[in-house]
Design a protein that fits this description.
Blueprint lengths: L2 H10 L11 H19 L7 H23 L6 H30 L5 H12 L3 H7 L18 H27 L3 H26 L1 H6 L5 H13 L7 H17 L5
Helix pairs in contact: 2-3, 3-7, 3-10, 4-5, 5-6, 6-7, 7-8, 8-10
Organism: Yaniella flava
Protein name: Acyltransferase 3 domain-containing protein
Pfam families: Acyl_transf_3 (PF01757)
């Protein structure tokens, strides 16, 4: 590689998120799990914020990982390794749950529910269960004999769609950055801001009209993934004193619990 190519590659990779172990993410995931549990126990139809946190964390991790890899490796991503990790960590365990649940459903549920259940099993395996639920006019907070046994796969479907699309988006933006000899962070950040604003606006509009559908839709959840991605881009440059960071975290948690929104 010539000196000019090396300088260009260095410029494209400038300010990309650093690779580091973040133990704080485990605590955030714990809060997300707690939020989901509390929602189903005491939610009364109000969002706990647990799913929002999971989606934000996914946006944070995958944006940082893929941008770093593409920017530092001449615009290339090892798709075999990427999808191999996804298969081992997400698809394989989820497939076991779906198959076992489907078999149990065939044995336990009435015959009249088998067709819809199998449709949702396929939708869950292929990560479009949220669209299947919308098309089936199922409410996420429904309870009773008609409740889908696979409805909780809707959020994993949103994540799966994101995992499939985000590497292509990152590659395209890194390619543009290389062509223009600019930091890839600039292009990725610009697109994430646009997605965040557009998706949040749509979530407000859609939620005011069809709340149940808006809750499950991918388009109304993209802003959370985009917010996580933006946070990944700037977190290395944020500096908060320990006391301020703790108080800010507690204030955010309390605010989220006191100002629950329907989405």
């Amino acid at each position: 590689m010539s000196a000019v190519e090396t300088a260009s590659s260095t410029r494209v990779a400038r300010h990309t998120p650093k690779r580091r172990y973040r133990p704080d993410l485990h605590g955030i995931r714990g809060l997300a799990i707690l939020g989901v549990v509390l929602f189903h126990l005491f939610g009364n139809g109000q969002v706990s914020g647990g799913i929002d946190i999971f989606l934000t964390v996914s946006g944070f991790l995958f944006t940082a990982m893929l941008l770093r890899e593409a920017a530092e490796n001449d615009g290339k991503i090892n798709f075999l390794a990427y999808f191999g990790r996804l298969f081992r960590r997400i698809f394989a365990p989820a497939a076991v749950v779906v198959i076992v649940t489907a078999i149990a459903g065939m044995l336990i549920l009435p015959y009249t529910q088998h067709t819809q259940m199998l449709r949702e099993a396929v939708a869950s395996l292929l990560y479009y269960e949220n669209f299947e639920l919308i098309n089936s006019q199922l409410s996420y907070d429904a309870a009773g004999p008609e409740t889908s046994v696979f409805q909780h796969f809707w959020s994993l479907s949103v994540q799966g769609q994101f995992y499939l699309v985000i590497p292509v988006v990152i590659l395209a933006l890194v390619w543009i950055a290389r062509k223009r000899n600019q930091p890839a962070v600039f292009w990725v950040g610009t697109v994430l801001v646009i997605v965040l604003i557009a998706s949040m606006a749509w979530a407000i509009i859609y939620g005011a009209q069809l709340q149940d559908e808006a809750y499950l839709a991918t388009t109304t959840r993209l802003w959370q993934l985009a917010f996580g991605g933006l946070l990944a881009l700037v977190i290395d440059h944020l500096r908060l004193a320990g006391g301020i960071a703790i108080r800010a975290g507690l204030a955010g948690s309390v605010y989220g619990r006191l100002h629950r929104i329907h989405l």
